[in-house]
Design goal:
With 1063 residues, this protein is α+β, with helices and mostly antiparallel strands. It contains 33 helices and 42 strands. Strands 18, 19, 20, 21, 22, 23 and 24 form a seven-stranded antiparallel beta sheet that branches.
Length: 1063
């Protein structure tokens, strides 16, 4: 779309100066680059008078503002430019503001301005744009243009730039390529050589819409070419419409050729006939370019009409008859349907239905037709379908009326206006002549003599004229009543249908149709009775009926009758027969039951047994027998059952069923046989595997025994060698001893694994004291604690039974391999808590769950603990790595051993960063009575210095069990303050318990300070730190050392020694 932006682009391209001033203010609004060269000091908002101080220019400007376009002004040489120039002035609008343009053209070539004005006047009348192209200088100048700003003889230094900008601004995007190709420099030079002007029809923007325009070239002078643009929108649209009409006509003619077999145009005044279209077989014999006589064409066409149908064309074979006017429809058409034949063939064999239409298309002043179009269309398939449909409809109508006449007995037409009733009787499918009777008597004369007395009232309420009028007033238009009517052989059921209607003369009439429905009603009654019987039978046997039942029988014990039922394929119950029940019971075993089972059948289902079960109100008697249901010698397994019921009246009856379970029994026997065979094969296979496993176990046991003997001899040799050369090679001998211990442990583990895999590992049930157990563990692992300077805190919670029944070696093995393998992997100086807990088992009085827990804060220990306890960890992959602190074969055996002992190994990680491994084992225990010296300890005060919460809680629990009042401190300062405060108030503590791990720095100095504060009162030191030297503490007479873990028996003995000196 062309706007001020497009104007600015063209102004910047021009080489003539253009200045725009406001019409009211005469201030400078815009000047293009060429004007800036003439007036370098000019800037926007400068006055017109400051730039042009020439009277002629001012006068030219005023004329342009008042009169529109004016003749250009030729100025001689001026101070601001050399040479003469042509000035143009024109009023226009610039960016929404009224402005005036002043153009300065300094060119000294071309025709004089007066000649250009005349040329512009001539061109503007025919063309909307005229461009002067100088191919020698490759420039262009506008002679005439609809744009006021461009109509001031604009000059452009480059034709190529101008034509590209003009195409972008004016030409439709789809037509730009065509426009640029037609008016390129190459095409213009070709035009100058051969004088062959190109014609280009494209769309251009004009008043915010695209219009068609025709651009062409014209030669003006040597090297000078004119590009002219002319508006051709109307002519182009007319041409497109003509082309579309031509295409539509071609399409119509092609469609006509597909629809019509023949199409003629007839001139009724001269008889000239032209063939517009014909099918292929006729097109070969006639021509659409020739003119034929109407009589010849009519004679040819009448021969192709079936002889029986030629009579309908008698009036249409003469031009005079057609001119005089024949009967036509409102649309001036005459349509005939006839049978078309082959003139040389059999008329009946080649006949095809055809439709011909004669349409009058032109008339003279007297409304006489002057022209007509005759078309012939093949409708054989449609016509035959129509005739077949009509024939079927007539057949159906005939059958319908036949049914109507065969169903209806008579009907009555009641006219309420004339007060008469016409009665029509139908006899032998024929309607007899009507009988007329007075309106008020037809019910007494026609209805009542033949109606059943019990139906008088109902029929009267429906058929009396007064009742019919009342029903119509209430909005009913139809009613139906069934009643009984007299017949030759009694009474029959009929139906009276009453139809009421209002005619156009405000009259009222009704039609009464009486039809025979006797067969229908009786069939329905019979069906209802059958359905009722089936319903009653279903009620009796539905509770027992199944698809596998061979027989179903009902027994009436009071009447001694048995009724046999059978279920048909359509789920109907039929009665197959009845017989005496006593005879049935006596004869059934001999007829149907397998001979070897007849005695048992008579014992269970004799007549007396069945009646006895009925009196005892049993629900069912049932047993499995081999029965021959068809008495052909083929016995099958069946369930013979007798069920006892009572009806709604309290009367008892029996249902006897015979159910075919032969397939079920045979399938069960086959499954049992297959299962037995598979069981025997599996047992034999398991026995073979067991024998092979035992043989392998014996072989490996012999190998391990030999290896153990060799290791024992090696150990004895090591002892003797150590005695001889212990001073020379101490470290090597120690390593050899460690290697021996590892080999011995691996040998024992492998032996136990073999026994465990062969279910031969025996777990002993021996009494074991926890004191003995922890003494053995302390002896075996004490060196590790001393070497690694570890801090171990041991405690026992709620352990009331300290002697358990277990395999001491296996339990020691578990604790050693699980916990101490983790302890060995800890870094030096690590701290841990070992805790023993006893939990009861619900319902068990001789067993409890003992939990052995190891709690650490070391990350490396947590990883080892998780690896040791994770049940999903692949132990086999760890066998490939060697780590002396982590033995995967021992851990694997431990897991198997824990499962054998019905225990569990859990890993838990707390939010505070601690990780624990807990071994839980259900163990039996031996009751023992632990007596605290309550007579000496009850009411005494005790102070516990313990920084470990679980251990302190366990110690305080045992002290309170002894009747002592306890207090706790967690640091030395708090302990000393509590002792000094108690001494100051005269209530000193009777017992002080200190954990050795809390004695920091010099234990001897701290113990001396404590004993100085406690005086003669006893002090218990819990020795849980093997690396701590407590020999100095034993020098004080009031100090006693207690080994961990502190059990109830240990605490009771220590209290007894401290407070019961007599014992």
């Amino acid at each position: 779309m062309w706007d001020h932006t497009t104007d600015r682009l063209f102004l910047e391209l021009r080489d003539d100066a253009v200045l725009l001033f406001g019409q009211q203010s005469l201030k400078l609004l815009y000047l293009n680059p060429a004007a800036q060269k003439l007036f370098p000091e000019a800037k926007p908002q400068d006055d017109f008078a400051a730039l042009f101080q020439i009277h002629e220019v001012t006068e030219l400007l005023n004329k342009a503002l008042s009169n529109g376009p004016v003749h250009p002004l030729i100025l001689p040489q001026q101070p601001w430019f050399s040479g003469s120039a042509v000035l143009h002035a024109a009023a226009l609008t610039w960016i929404g503001e009224a402005a005036v343009a002043v153009t300065i053209d300094r060119r000294a070539y071309g025709p004089p301005p007066q000649a250009m004005e005349l040329m512009r006047a001539v061109l503007q009348s025919a063309y909307f744009t005229a461009l002067r192209i100088d191919m020698r200088m490759q420039n262009a100048g506008l002679i005439s243009d609809k744009n006021v700003l461009m109509n001031t003889q604009a000059h452009f230094p480059s034709y190529s730039q101008y034509i590209c900008m003009y195409s972008e601004a004016v030409i439709h995007p789809d037509d730009r390529a065509q426009f640029l190709a037609a008016f390129s420099e190459e095409k213009i030079r070709l035009f100058m050589e051969v004088n062959n002007a190109p014609a280009c029809n494209v769309r251009r923007i004009c008043d915010e819409e695209y219009r068609w325009a025709s651009f062409t070239l014209a030669s003006a002078d040597e090297g000078i070419v004119l590009l002219l643009g002319k508006d051709s929108n109307e002519s182009h649209l007319q041409q497109e419409e003509l082309e579309m009409v031509s295409l539509r006509n071609d399409y119509i003619l092609s469609s006509i050729s597909d629809i019509f077999r023949l199409m003629l145009h007839i001139d009724l005044t001269t008889g000239e006939t032209v063939i517009c279209s014909a099918i292929n077989e006729q097109a070969e014999r006639v021509s659409t370019d020739d003119v034929y006589s109407f009589q010849d064409v009519a004679a040819r066409l009448i021969r192709m009409v079936h002889p029986a149908d030629r009579g309908m064309f008698g009036d249409y074979l003469s031009l005079d008859a057609l001119r005089r006017g024949v009967p036509v429809s409102e649309d001036n058409k005459i349509t005939k349907e006839y049978r078309r034949i082959d003139p040389d063939g059999d008329p009946d064999a080649t006949a095809k239905w055809t439709r011909s239409v004669l349409t009058f298309t032109a008339f003279d002043e007297n409304r006489c037709p002057t022209e007509a179009v005759y078309t012939v269309q093949d409708i054989d398939a449609q016509k035959r379908q129509e005739l077949e449909s009509k024939r079927r409809q007539e057949s159906l109508t005939s059958q319908f009326y036949t049914v109507i006449r065969s169903r209806y007995l008579w009907f009555v037409d009641c006219d309420f206006n004339s007060q008469t009733a016409h009665v029509f009787r139908i006899k032998d499918h024929t309607v007899l002549p009507p009988t007329e009777c007075p309106f008020g008597q037809f019910f007494e004369r026609i209805i009542m003599p033949n109606c059943h007395p019990e139906d008088y009232k109902r029929v009267a309420l429906a058929l009396l004229p007064s009742a019919v009028s009342e029903n119509y007033r209430l909005g009913k238009r139809q009613s139906t009543i069934d009643y009984r009517e007299k017949a030759n052989d009694g009474w029959r059921y009929v139906r009276a249908e009453v139809y009421m209607q209002q005619d156009g003369q405000d009259g009222f009439r009704s039609m009464i149709y009486v039809s025979d429905i006797d067969d229908e009603v009786k069939s329905q009654i019979h069906m209802t009775q059958s359905e009722h019987e089936q319903l009653m039978l279903r009620r009796r046997i539905d509770s027992t009926i199944q698809d596998a039942f061979l027989y179903i029988s009902e027994v009436d014990p009071d009447a001694d009758v048995i009724t046999h039922y059978q279920l048909t394929k359509d789920d109907q119950v039929s009665v197959t027969g009845t017989e005496q029940f006593t005879a049935f019971c006596s004869a059934y075993p001999d007829r149907f039951v397998f001979p070897e089972q007849r005695r048992l059948f008579r014992q269970l289902f004799s007549y007396d047994q069945i009646l006895k079960a009925a009196r005892e109100m049993k629900s069912e008697l049932k047993h499995l027998f081999l029965i021959d249901p068809h008495e052909n010698g083929t016995y099958i397994w069946c369930n013979f059952a007798v069920r006892f019921f009572r009806n709604e009246n309290g009367k008892s009856y029996l249902m006897i069923t015979v159910e075919d379970v032969n397939e079920v029994i045979e399938k069960r026997d086959a499954d049992m046989q297959a299962a037995s065979t598979a069981k025997e094969q599996l047992q034999e296979h398991m026995r073979e595997i067991e024998r092979g496993r035992i043989r392998s176990a014996h072989v490996f046991m012999n190998i391990f025994s030999s290896l153990q003997l060799a290791l024992n001899r090696l150990y004895s040799n090591l002892d003797s060698l150590e005695a001889q050369r212990s001073a020379q090679y101490p470290s090597e001998l120690y390593q050899m001893h460690q290697t021996y211990e590892q080999l011995s442990s691996m040998t024992e583990c492998a032996k136990d694994m073999l026994l465990l895999d062969n279910n031969q590992l025996v777990l002993l049930n021996q009494p074991l004291s926890f004191l003995v157990l922890f003494r053995k563990l302390r002896h075996s692992i004490g060196k590790v604690f001393e070497e690694k300077h570890m801090q171990v805190i041991s405690c026992a919670e709620h352990v009331t039974d300290e002697t358990v029944l277990c395999d001491s070696e296996r339990l020691t093995f578990l604790l050693d391999k699980i916990f101490f393998s983790i302890i060995r992997a800890l870094p030096d100086g690590a701290s841990m808590i070992m805790k023993l807990t006893q939990d009861p088992i619900p319902g068990q009085i001789k067993q409890a769950v003992y939990s052995f827990s190891l709690i650490t804060r070391c990350r490396r220990s947590a990883e080892n603990e998780q690896r040791a306890t994770d049940p999903a960890k692949a132990i086999e992959t760890d066998f490939l790595s060697y780590d002396p602190n982590y033995q995967p074969h021992n851990l694997y055996f431990c897991k198997r051993l824990i499962a054998l002992m019905h225990g569990a190994l859990d890993y838990e990680k707390s939010p505070d960063g601690t990780a624990s491994v807990t071994l839980r084992l259900p163990l039996g225990f031996v009751r023992q009575q632990i007596i605290f010296p309550l007579r000496h300890t009850f009411g005494k005060r005790a102070l516990v210095w313990d920084s470990c919460d679980p251990a302190a809680a366990s110690t305080i629990s045992m002290l309170r069990e002894s009747g002592m009042e306890t207090e706790r401190r967690i640091d030395p300062e708090g302990t000393k303050d509590a002792l000094m405060q108690a001494e100051a108030i005269g209530t000193p503590y009777d017992l002080i318990i200190v954990r050795a791990s809390d004695l920091c720095g010099s234990p001897a100095a701290q113990m001396q300070e404590l004993t100085g504060l406690t005086g003669s009162h006893p002090v218990f030191v819990i020795a849980d730190h093997p690396a701590l030297d407590l020999t100095a503490a034993q020098q004080f007479p009031t100090v006693r050392l207690i080994r961990t873990p502190v059990l109830r028996s240990t605490m009771a003995a220590a209290l007894r020694q401290a407070f019961d000196q007599s014992e």
